[in-house]
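Support request from a user on the community tier.

User writes: "When I paste my structure tokens into the form, the page sometimes reloads and wipes my input. The last time it worked, I copied everything first. Here is what I submitted, just in case something in the input itself triggers the reload:"
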């Protein structure tokens, strides 16, 4: 199968590249390396089934070149991470909305099936936990920059359905805090990467708010499995799926766990939100997936428990810091 992965040098994208190449498929990656990293795909450059194009999804000519001949498009290129969209709201919205429109339009012209990578962020601060795919969403006011991300990704989902009405084959996945090796080693975009770096450096682990907010972290191998099932199964056409693990943990407990696994002397520091962010901020209190639809239609179940996944993520992060010459 010929597959284009937009954002294929990013965290989830590059793991999809590994998996598809290992299965013998042809893979093209389109990535502008803004948050993606060449190091994530470097090991494939000698493979003649792999093609890398440095380019941006806002540039239709680059997308057109990359998409030519593709049967499947895994659309992961996006401005991701709440810190990014809070600091760069306009850029984030343009990439996430206009870029997705370019990809959907050209996939439609090409006749390729599309998997849209969306996010559990679209549920916003809903209290209807666990979040079911068809449940109502609850977002805060537009003056809170964070909600621009959920709004843009929800608009992407609406656009995907609109293209489906025109005959494009689409499926959507909503990731629940995916983590694992290749999380940005600068600590960007994920609380796990950030806490691990702090713990390994013996710096305070900065828990925002009271630390009782929860997340349901999903190990990368599970995220990849769920993505490919949703991208390829006939039953998944026109459907949206939560890709997550039904294991909920408070951020404070996560900090304790990372401190334990890294054997770190770091203190755990509670940081008020108004010190952590320069704009007013809202944080979903609980984020927990209803995993029954993915189980029923795709036979998908996330397997890796958090402690096991954390050990693998920490081991990788240690190696990165050693390579970078950290003390
Ligand atoms: N968080 C934290 N300390 C940090 C970074 C994040 O306590 O240094 C919290 C953040 O407020 C949120 C959770 O960790 O409650 C997950 O944050 P992340 O940015 O990983 O993803 P989100 O689930 O918010 O999209």
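"...and here is what came back when it finally went through:"
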């Amino acid at each position: 199968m010929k597959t284009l992965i937009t954002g294929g040098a990013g965290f989830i994208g590059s793991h999809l590249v590994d998996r598809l190449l290992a299965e013998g498929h042809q893979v093209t990656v389109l990535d502008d390396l803004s948050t993606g990293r060449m190091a994530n795909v470097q090991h494939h450059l000698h493979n003649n089934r792999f093609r890398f194009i440095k380019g941006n999804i806002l540039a239709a000519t680059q997308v057109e070149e990359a998409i030519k001949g593709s049967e499947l498009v895994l659309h992961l290129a996006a401005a991701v991470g709440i810190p990014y969209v809070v600091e760069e709201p306009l850029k984030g919205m343009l990439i996430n909305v206009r870029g997705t429109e370019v990809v959907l339009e050209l996939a439609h012209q090409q006749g390729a099936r599309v998997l849209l990578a969306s996010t559990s962020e679209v549920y916003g601060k809903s209290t209807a936990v666990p979040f079911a795919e068809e449940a109502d969403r609850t977002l805060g006011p537009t003056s809170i920059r964070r909600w621009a991300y959920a709004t843009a990704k929800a608009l992407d989902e609406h656009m995907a359905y609109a293209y489906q009405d025109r005959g494009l084959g689409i499926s959507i996945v909503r990731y629940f805090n995916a983590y694992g090796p290749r999380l940005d080693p600068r600590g960007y975009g994920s609380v796990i990467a950030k806490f691990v770096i702090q713990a390994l450096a013996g710096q305070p682990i900065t828990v925002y708010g009271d630390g009782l907010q929860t997340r349901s972290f999903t190990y990368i191998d599970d995220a990849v499995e769920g993505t490919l099932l949703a991208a390829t199964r006939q039953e998944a056409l026109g459907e949206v799926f939560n890709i997550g693990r039904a294991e909920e943990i408070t951020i404070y407990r996560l900090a304790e766990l990372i401190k334990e696994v890294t054997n770190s002397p770091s203190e755990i520091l509670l940081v008020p939100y108004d010190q952590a962010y320069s704009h007013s901020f809202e944080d979903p209190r609980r984020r927990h997936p209803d995993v029954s639809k993915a189980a029923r239609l795709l036979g998908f179940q996330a397997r890796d428990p958090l402690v096991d996944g954390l050990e693998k993520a920490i081991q990788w992060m240690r190696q990165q810091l050693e390579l970078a010459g950290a003390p």
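Agent notes: The reload is a front-end session timeout and is unrelated to the input. The mean pLDDT is 96. The CA atoms of residues 61 and 180 lie 33 Å apart. Escalated to web team.
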